[in-house]
Every structure is written in C-alpha cells, then in structure tokens.
Fold these 2 entries.
Entry 1:
Amino acid sequence: MAYQKVKGTLDYFDLDSKKYRFIESKVSSIVKGYGFSEMITPIFENTEVFVRSVGEASDIVSKEMYTFLDKGERSLTLRPEGTAAIVRCFVENKLYATPGIKKYYYFGPMFRYERPQKGRYRQFNQFGVEVYGDASPYLDCDVIYSAYKILSSLKIKGIKLKINTIGDFESRKNYTDALRNYFKDKLEFLCDDCKNRFAKNPMRILDCKVDGESDIIKNAPKIKDYLTDEAKEYFNNTLKALDELKVPYICDDNLVRGLDYYTDTVFEFISDFDGLAICAGGRYADLIKSFDGPDIPGIGFAFGIERIKNIMEQEDLFPKLDNLTDVVIISLDDESKICALKLASILRENKITVEMDYKNNSLKPQFKLSDRINPKYIVIIGEAERESGIYTVKDVLNKKEDKVELNKIIDYVKGE
Ligand code: HAM
C-alpha cells in the first residue's frame, strides 16, 4: 500500500466513529449539566504558550512537541495538551473581567511525539475541563467528583483514583531544595535527561521514564515531608470532602504529574485493565498570572478519549450503535427512480434514513443491495405504483407486506 496513516495516529470510521461520538455526547451532556460552557481553541499555538506553562524540563516540552516554523518564521506547536491554550484564551479575551467562577470544557486532538502503543498515540483526543476562580478544597473535591461521575455515567468500573498534593509555593521550594541536596552526589547514576532536569526542575526527575523505577528515585525525599501546615490542611480538607461524598481514593506520595504548572492537589484515575491513566489533572495556582493575567487560580482535568474507548470496548459498555437503515427503495424503471429520489427526500426530511439503488432496474440486484443493508422497510416503486399512488411496503422485521398510499408512508414507517 502506497499511503498509510502516520505512525501513532488513528482513523475513525463506521462503528469506531459512532463510539467516539457516543463518548463525546455523553460526557459533554454531563458537564453542561454542571454549568460548564465549551471553549474551542486552535490546534496550534505559539510554542512559548506550552514552554512557559508545561515547563522546559518536562518530557512533553523537551521531547514530545510537534514544533515547526511557519512561513513567517514563527515557532508554532501543535497543542500537546489543552490547559495552557485554554488559559491563554481566558487571559487574552479577558474572560476574568466579569465576577464569579468560570467553568469551561473542551474536546479535541492533542499531539505528542511518544512511542506509540495501545492507549498511547501521537495524535489522541482529550476531553477536559478547567475551572477558574477559587482556591478551595471543596472546589477541588467538586471537580474530582465530576470526573468520578463521568466515569460512573459511562459505567466504567475497575478504575482507581490516585491523589496527592505537591503543596503550595513554599512547600515546593523546600522540596526542590531537598531533592537537589539528595540527587547532587547521585547524578552519575542518572540519565542525561535527568542531569538536565536536576538543573531546571529536579521534581521532573521523579517522573523519568528511564530512571523512574530505580531505587535512587524510589528512595528520594517525599513531598509529604516538606508540606507547610497550610498545604497539609488544604489537602486534608480535600480528602475529607471526598470521604463525605464517598469517592474512593488512594493517596500516592509518588504522584507528582509530569507538567510543571501544578500546585497543591494532583490526581489521576488509573485503569486496572492496563495500568494507564484514563484521566488526570490538578490545581494550578500561578498559571493565569504567568500568562500576564490576574492572580486567579485554576483547576482541571482531562480524559483520554481513546483510553475510555478501549476500556468501554473491553468491558462491553457501548449500547448498540450500528443503527439499521430505516428504508431501502427499490425502483423498477427510470421514471420510478425519479419518484424514488423524491420519496427519499421527503422521508429524510422526516429523519428517516433511506438508501436506494441508482443504477439497476431489475429486482434481483436491488434485493441483493437490500439484503446487505438490512433495512427495517423496503418500498417498491414500479409503473403500477406510480400510476395508482399506492406503494408496496415490506416490513422486514415483522415479515409482512402492505399497500400504502404515498402520503401515509411516513406514518407507516414511523409506526404511527
Ligand atoms: P496529561 O496527564 O498529560 O494531562 O493527559 C491527560 C490524559 O490524556 C491522560 O490521563 C491520558 O488519558 C490522555 N493521554 C495523554 N497522553 C496520551 C497519549 N499519548 N495517547 C493517548 N492518550 C493520552 C494533561 O494533559 C493536563 N492538561 C490535564 C489537566 C487539565 N490538568 C489540569 N487541567
């Protein structure tokens, strides 16, 4: 085959595209009910948008971005994630100007140059939400709860919520110093990327894909020992609120997330089925400020749609999506084909799906087409039907046949 899709990308067609749209409509109807409004941003941004937010030392920025110069020599990047672009849009359009909490959701393709495998793609789709306005453990709980409710409404089981805090500014500063102190005489045992991370942001060493499982990293200082009293209290109140709402979770000291913008609460929903995160997110106190916006904190999460789809397929959770075509029209001469086109148009206007044969006039190939499509009804139009205005309609499911006047076909097919 001469042309194949790019490695790590997916084609969606037939049942797969229906599954994709099913997930999309289900999750967006839930978040609309929570008062979120949709934000649609471009799929590429100035590269700086991601570098300054996700962080230079992160894998995403240092290794995975699709960055290119446009014809005006501007450095642009296909978005590797949604949060930074949503914040950019929020600040640029001064959406903070009116008071109150702002809640947005977004859908769309993200791009990361990762090693492709099941559940990890170079173009994948995220559904995410971002909430701006308050730093409160109750808001953290509410946002996590909405992710939990999305999973329950899709009936997905076998998911664990892992949660941690990476503290406020002071906690992270103390922790970063402790990590530098711990790693400074162990650098020779770390990969070159980690040596770089040591200088730029030692917390990123903890999510290194090469050294991540080594004892040096496992024995590194834990953030929980460097939290300020305020950060501890904030986290405990978030956990208490989750307890009250009966959301099960596991506290995981090692969870630091691979993006630099997080502060305080971070979380991931992990699938038992393949150990991958199906959803991840957290709070970010300073991101809006770092985009020259006001001092407003944010929190959000993003689901990987492909990962949701894989689990739903595994757990057999999709409803029947391959709908039957309602009607196939069989027409026995050229004049009847014109009649068939007119009838098809009227039926389609009434939301009845219709297929017809455009080429053959004899019955045999047209019944063959109909067998393949397997419609609920077959309408036959020949000279006699045209002249009398009464059509032969076969009810395929109930195995019966009736003569139906043209103006009654819609009611007949709709079962009214
Ligand atoms: P993230 O953990 O990088 O966070 O990605 C969120 C989710 O996107 C993951 O949990 C996973 O389900 C999916 N995902 C990530 N990479 C891939 C991939 N290569 N192939 C398939 N699925 C993938 C973020 O992107 C943050 N912006 C989340 C967030 C929103 N934090 C605050 N607000």
Entry 2:
Amino acid sequence: MSHGVTIAGTGSYLPEKILTNDELSKFVDTSDEWIVTRTGIKARRIAADDEHTSHLASKAAERALEQANIAAEDVELIIVATITPDTLTPATACYVQQQLGSHKAVAFDVSAACSGFLYAMKLAKNLIESGSFKNALIIGAEKLSSFVNWKDRTTCVLFGDGAGAAVLRAAEEGEGRILATDIGTDGKQTHLLNIPGGGSACPITIDNAGERLATLAMLGKEVFKHAVTRMKNSANTVIERAGLQAEDISIVIPHQANLRIIDAIASRLDVPNERVFVNLHKYGNTSAAAIAIALDEAHRTGEIKKGDKVVMVAFGAGLTWAAAAIEW
Ligand code: UT7
C-alpha cells in the first residue's frame, strides 16, 4: 500500500561572502534605509568567481543526502531548478551528477524561476508515485550575482546566491508526506521579469556587449501585484486540496522576495506573522533556491517538527507560481 512521498532530508549551502546593504551603497546609488524599508533585505551572499551554480547545488545536495541517509551513488533522479545555469547546455544537473558521483541518476534542469523548486517537487513526487524512480534529489540553486546588472539599483539590491536541496522517496507507514501540490504559468506576462539577452532571441554580440542584456530586468511594481494574488490563490489551492484549515498550518514558507509581499500573503491567508518563515533579511531573493534554503533552515532549527503541516508557496518569472502542502 502506498503511503505517498516523503521528504527524507534537506540541506542548504550559502557562499561565505556577505554583502551588506551598507557595503553595496558604496558602489550603487542606494541606501540601507531604502532597501530595508522597501524589501526587508539587509544582506545577501555572493559566490566566489570559481564557485558555480553546480558547486552550490552539490554542497546543498550532500547535506540533504547525509540527512536522508542515502548514498550519492544510489540517487536515481536529480532535478536542478535554476535560472542561472553553469552553461546553457548541458544542464546544471549533469554537472551536479558528476560532482556527487551519482552516476546512475537521470539528471535534468527545470527553468521556472523562483517557483522552480516547487515545480521540481511536484515532478519528482509524481515520478516516484508512478514507480519510475525510487528516490529523487531536488535542488534549487542560483548564482544570481553573475546575472544582475550592478549598475541598475532597481534590481541589483534584491538578489543573492545560494542553494537548497531535498531528498524525496516513497514514504513508509507513519512517515510524513507531501499532501498536495499546485503549479501554474501565465505566459502573457513574460515581459515583466526576464533576462532578455544571451538566448536565441538576442545573442550577445560585439555590438550589444555594452548593454548588459544578459542580466535581470524587472517591472517591480507590476510583478508585486501579481505575486500577492497568485501566491495567495496557489497556497489556498493546496490548503483546500490537503483538506486543511488556516489554523491547522504550523508554518508557511513563502518565496523570499520582499517582506511586504510576505506580510500581504500572510494576512490574506489568515496566518499570523509568527507562523511565517522569513530569512530574506540574510540572503535577499535567491530565486529557485529561496524556498529550498528556507525549508532546510526551518527544519534544522526545529521550527518544523514531526506532524507539522507546512505550506510552501512561490512566484516568479514566467510568470510562474507553485505551492505544496506537507505533513512533516
Ligand atoms: O522573485 C520574483 C518576484 N519578484 C518580486 O516579487 C519583486 C516584486 N517587486 C518588488 O519587490 C518591489 O516592486 C521593488 C522592491 C522591486 C521596488 O519597490 P517599489 O516600492 O515598487 O519601488 P519603486 O520601483 O516604485 O521605486 C520607488 C522609488 C523610485 O524613485 P521615484 O521615481 O519615486 O523618484 C525609484 O527610482 O525608489 C527609487 N529606487 C531606489 N532608491 C534607492 C528604486 N530602487 C532604488 C534603490 N535605492 N535600490
């Protein structure tokens, strides 16, 4: 008899270098006061030049595997969610497979921006439930510092680097399980948040090299409005599918983009702020890595305990959104 799919381990990795708002203000026309008031971010991590997205991903993955007590060579599926791959091809997951020594694993990337980790979770859950794989390593990893325009104060203050991972496998009796998932996309809004250059639509050439087109561009106010509505709806979808009420939810782990967005969602879901996990003051917005890192921190600090009902909800470029309800 199937008991669903459980999260057997979590892990995260943040690069050592911390860039505070005050340090950033020395080379960008901004201030700690503006960034904290508008976003809640106080610092972000910056990966070293020779530290690629795959390296961040592999370090987070090793910690998750250790906790799950699964050997790297026994991993059957690796999905890396990222918008900052090491290379356009092959997929970052292929580098991760090699770095971990998970040579039997099928490995591919998912590109769903900040919703990517929860897209990967839904895919992995369904693939395990269908019997295709016994276990899966899902990773959200980003080196956004390589894709921000450090001359654009409206975006560069927001993002940071990092990775988080989770190991999924078939649940045994009495173990926690993923109760419900939801994912969605609105391709009419691709213009609101994108990296316009570096793809086939706009290759970087000698003529446009100075325009920094391979960096994140965002219409922040528009994105903000969509973020609140889409995340509220997606969270409510999984809460309903899981048969939960607001008061059953032990902790909400929302995408870490802006404290004002997080507060707006908490109030719309009727969940008090103390049951909403926040770490964006330390790391900024790490896109696909954000929820994965937050899940690991909440788990390792004991904020998530056995039997807790956890709701994760994300939103990002695409536009994409996703949510998951879990019984821990
Ligand atoms: O992860 C994917 C999802 N992403 C998001 O969810 C992000 C959603 N958007 C946001 O979080 C917010 O829209 C931002 C934090 C990006 C911007 O906050 P805002 O309250 O919408 O500010 P704004 O863009 O309307 O800018 C207000 C003012 C402008 O000046 P004027 O035109 O009022 O004179 C900007 O030029 O703030 C100025 N400004 C800055 N000032 C100091 C913009 N960026 C900065 C800055 N430092 N870094």
